[in-house]
Amino acid sequence: MLPHHRFVDTGSRSIYGKTPLSSALEKSFPPEALGSVTVIQDDKPLTSFWNRTLPKDASIESQGRLSKTETMFTGSLLGVQIFGMTDIEFYALSCKGAADLTLKLTQHWKAAFRSMLEFQAIDQSAPLRSFLLNLNGQTGLHRRM
Q1: How far apart (Å, rounded) are the C-alpha atoms in residues 79 and 46?
Q2: Could you tell me if residue 82 is inside a domain?
């Protein structure tokens, strides 16, 4: 990074995650929300964004060494400094710690909405910070782990 570029902390913190499409998720999550982008927001405000990603057949490119990936939902739980811990504690979270925090923060949500988090792939969870970066007078949103 060049020294004259400045980061502007937005105060936003999020926990990134992935949830595989499973029969248990299909039974519990609202079916109309399984087809595309889903946004859930409460009054804290705590917002959850989820996007369905279609499987890719990696076996073609890897010449059979990798298999076809499963349908996943990628998303994040976004809040503005409401996670109840310091930045040092937040960014030190393990994958399991980040996944557990999503469940703790959403314990007041309806069970159907929480199921996206309950069935998440724990090893795919990570704390993130959003910040702005000024490049030649233009500001863009960037994320850093």
Answers
A1: 5
A2: yes
